[in-house]
UniProtKB/TrEMBL annotation:
It comes from the Bacteria. It comes from Stutzerimonas stutzeri (Pseudomonas stutzeri). It holds the Pfam family Nmad3. Residues 2-265 form the Nucleotide modification associated domain. This is Nucleotide modification associated domain-containing protein.
């Protein structure tokens, strides 16, 4: 089984700011802008909030509510009105999809989605980021791959429930791929108590990748099983041993600034599986 640490959502480059952590602890990963998407930010909801209004307040750009959003991965059933049969999806294409293919990513592998998050507060002008709080990389959701679809090869009468997805709006591209979630998380052939995909409802320190004392969000603290073995890293894009420091039951990683999909082959180890289960089975989540 492979674990894919998958960078998704707003940051300083894509979107212009982090995603918010609200005062009650709720987190919302804001989808990045996408002119080719059929979904506008104002079409999306988060509880009683309109995501278009939220993006306007956080960015200070009144035009943002009419901009279009790359809702991908699409994990929350209540983000949009849904067609019968809807399932959570992730789309990928281009060099990022090429990397997943070369790494042998397949059904049964698990994406852990992370992004840049920062606490917000309500002001007279609306939601604003808290000046005293820094942005951190935080895991916000997961998805186990159930089926993999090549978009260009799908017959027109298949997956009607998914046709809203941005990856159906693009020009033909042989790399355009959709990953469909499993219903239940399955590990080692056994069903767990967790859903096949979901989002973590509230912030939890166990979800934080950024090291506690770091002023740079890309400096991570990870479980020790991620550490290089005999000088060789099992986490793709991170083969430079100088990026790693190992200490007891954890390791520190200066993660790369670019790249979307970082693939880790568990190679039959139990510790990575238990780590995933400790997140998805014990931290409150929803789909």
């Amino acid at each position: 089984m492979r674990i894919i640490l998958s960078r998704k959502g707003f940051d300083s480059t894509a979107g212009g700011c982090p995603s918010p952590i609200f005062p009650d602890g709720r987190m919302l990963s804001l989808p990045i802008p996408d002119k080719g998407s059929p979904i506008a930010y104002q079409d999306l909801s988060f509880g009683d909030m309109n995501v278009g209004d939220l993006v306007v307040e956080l960015t200070g750009d009144a035009k943002r509510s009419r901009h279009f959003a790359h809702l991908d991965p699409d994990l929350r059933a209540d983000s949009l009105p849904r067609s019968p049969g809807w399932k959570p999806l992730l789309g990928q294409m281009g060099s990022a999809q090429g990397h997943l293919r070369k790494q042998g990513v397949q059904a049964g592998d698990v994406f852990l989605f992370f992004g840049s998050f920062r606490p917000v507060e309500q002001t007279a002008e609306g939601w604003r980021f808290k000046r005293a709080e820094r942005a951190r990389h935080i895991i916000w959701g997961w998805m186990q791959i159930g089926r993999i679809h090549k978009v260009d090869e799908l017959p027109s009468d298949e997956m009607h429930w998914a046709r809203y997805h941005p990856h159906f709006a693009y020009s033909p591209d042989a790399s355009n791929t959709l990953y469909e979630s499993t219903d239940q998380l399955v590990v080692g052939g056994a069903h767990t108590h967790a859903l096949g995909s979901g989002v973590f409802i509230h912030f939890d320190e166990r979800l934080v990748l950024t090291a506690p004392e770091s002023t740079t969000q890309s400096n991570w603290r990870l479980p020790s099983f991620f550490a290089p073995v005999d000088g060789l890293s099992q986490l793709s894009y991170h083969g430079d041993a100088r990026r790693w420091q190992v200490a007891d039951d954890e390791c520190l990683l200066n993660s790369v600034a670019r790249g979307q999909e970082f693939v880790f082959d568990t190679q039959g180890q139990d510790a990575p599986i238990q780590w995933i289960l400790s997140l998805v089975e014990s931290i409150p989540s929803s789909s």
